Amino acid sequence: MGTKTYNPYENMVAVLEQAAEKLGLKPDEYETLKYPERELIVSIPVRMDDGTLKVFEGYRVQHNSARGPYKGGIRYHQNANQDEVKALAAWMSFKCAVVNIPYGGAKGGIKVDPTKLSRDELIRLTRRYTTRILPLIGPDQDIPAPDVNTNGEVMGWIMDTYSMFKGHSVPGVVTGKPVEIGGSIGRAEATGRGVTIIAEKCLEDLGMEPQEQTYAVQGMGNVGGTAAKILYEEGKRVIAVSDWSGGVMKREGLDIPDILAFLSDRSKALKDYEKEGTEHISNEELLTCKCDVLIPAALENQITEKNAAQIQARVIVEAANGPTAIEADHILAERKITVIPDILANAGGVVVSYFEWVQNIQSMAWELDEVNQMLKKVMLKAYHDVSNMSKEKSSTMRMGAYMVAINRITTAGRQRGGPISMA
Ligand SMILES: NC(=O)C1=CN([C@@H]2O[C@H](COP(=O)(O)OP(=O)(O)OC[C@H]3O[C@@H](n4cnc5c(N)ncnc54)[C@H](O)[C@@H]3O)[C@@H](O)[C@H]2O)C=CC1
Ligand SMILES: O=C(O)CCC(=O)C(=O)O
After folding, report:
1. Are 99 and 216 in the same domain?
2. Are residues 114 and 217 in the same domain?
3. Ligand 2 centre and the CA of 350: distance in Å?
4. In this predicted structure, what is the pLDDT of residue 418?
5. How far apart are CA 85 and CA 161, in angstroms?
6. Are residues 213 and 131 located together in one domain of the fold?
7. Residue at 9 is within a domain
8. Gene3D superfamilies given for it (predicted)?
9. DSSP per-residue string spanning 356-417
């Protein structure tokens, strides 16, 4: 029997189907939610520094707009593909509904290994991609943001390109921008911060003292790096972290600021990090290491039917989008491992993106305390809603989150008399 190849879109549909069934959703509504409303594939010709021309493939997928403008990040990765972006776009619709912010869901991506491009090549790639997706985006239409291998600087280039075409500055076309050009203070840390807020709340609910637990984090980028840093600053024991090259472990607790300082040199990777008492482990070993809380914060399909039975953590907080394959979900549920799903756990980023967009519309700049307090309030309310739904329906937190999201999206669709209520 051959091994089934993982397809993130099929995984998303399978989870959606389970939740729809549990909720008794009308077939019409389920069918409507399965498919994106709009998909765009673009070619992006880029003049490379050596004078040659390379053509890259890019995507923007808009999944659902029943609750508001489309919203979601842009990813640069060598394995980015249409089905991945389709899944990520749907997860954005569900995520925005779970935290109850007035957006639909979208996602974008370019199939490119950005580490192989110079800064000038990356600027040209980003500007050309922006012109290609320009008819679809805008502050009232679809608002991109950072995701894997993109950041505030890339958002600044997108905003500039869009503004050049409009003939005036349009800060609200993207979120996650540098603060100096209309970004929100606190957005860069918001996803990681939201993950720690949710992790703490979940541990308290389970009667586990957050301060006494050990934490392992896969991925040391924007999300994983920030989550690890906040946990460390709160005095919690982060015993293992990793990046694309592998991981490091120290049972007494890693020196996270030292690791982040080491990784701030972009040419460095964790495989080269040396410190007394710190041992090297593989990503697979990180996922199955003895810890209380596992935080996957890298890519999809990390927890699979192959390793789910070996996971030793009691709680998994999904900081990445789609880190757990559906087959693994069943194994984890049987083993009574609590999984806080991505569409709740990593929603802090889009919540502060929403705050940024609101600030742009009002030409205001909030204080950091205000942003962080509002973020905490929204995340805890969402946790509460999901937890209540999962108790009411005797289901996992993932099913609870999907049911909250589906209810809100389909209600909006029905109230609009729109395409989601064809019956
Ligand atoms: N940036 C944001 O605000 C948000 C990001 N996310 C999700 O969080 C995850 C991480 O995103 P970012 O931190 O923004 O990306 P990033 O590009 O800043 O960092 C990605 C990290 O993952 C590591 N990595 C890459 N491939 C890996 C592999 N095969 N095994 C282990 N580690 C690997 C990289 O070395 C890096 O440390 C993604 O799933 C993303 O969709 C979710 C919500 C918001
Ligand atoms: O901040 C945003 O708008 C979206 C971030 C994102 O792509 C995500 O939550 O996966």
Report:
1. no
2. no
3. 5
4. 66
5. 23
6. no
7. no
8. Leucine Dehydrogenase, chain A, domain 1, NAD(P)-binding Rossmann-like Domain
9. HHHHHHHT----HHHHHHHHHHHHHHHHHHHHHHHHHTT--HHHHHHHHHHHHHHHHHHHTT
**214 is written with which tokens?**
């050990």
Least confident of 15-29, 98-112, 353-367, 406-420: 406-420
Calculate mean pLDDT across residues 52-78: 98
289 with 329, same domain? yes
Q: Which residues are catalytic?
A: 107
Closest ligand to the CA of 195: 1
CATH code for the domain in which residue 130 is found: 3.40.50.10860
Task: Give yes or no for residue 108 CB within 6 A of ligand 2.
Answer: no
Indicate if the pLDDT at residue 2 is higher than 60: no
What is the per-residue pLDDT across 317-328, written as a single tens digit (0 to 9) for each? 999 999 999 999
Q: Which residue's C-alpha comes closest to atom 7 of ligand 1? A: 320
User: Could you tell me if residue 5 is inside a domain?
Assistant: no
Protein residue with least CA distance to atom 15, ligand 1: 148
Q: Which atom of ligand 2 is nearest to the CA of 176?
A: 1
| pLDDT tens-digit series, residues 26-53 | 998 999 999 999 999 999 999 999 999 9
Angle 413-419-420 (CA atoms, 0-180°, nearest 5)? 45
Q: Which parts are annotated binding residues for substrate? A: 71, 95, 353
Q: Kindly state whether residues 213 and 309 are assigned to the same domain.
A: yes
CA of 145 to the centre of ligand 2 (A): 6
Q: Is residue 229 located within the same domain as residue 157?
A: no
Span 77-90, average pLDDT:
98
Domain with 258 in it: what CATH number? 3.40.50.720
Give the residue among 102, 47, 103, 46 at the shortest CA–CA distance from 73: 103
Q: How many whole angstroms from 218 Cα to the centroid of ligand 1?
A: 9
Give the residue, by CA position, lying nearest to ligand 1 atom 9: 320
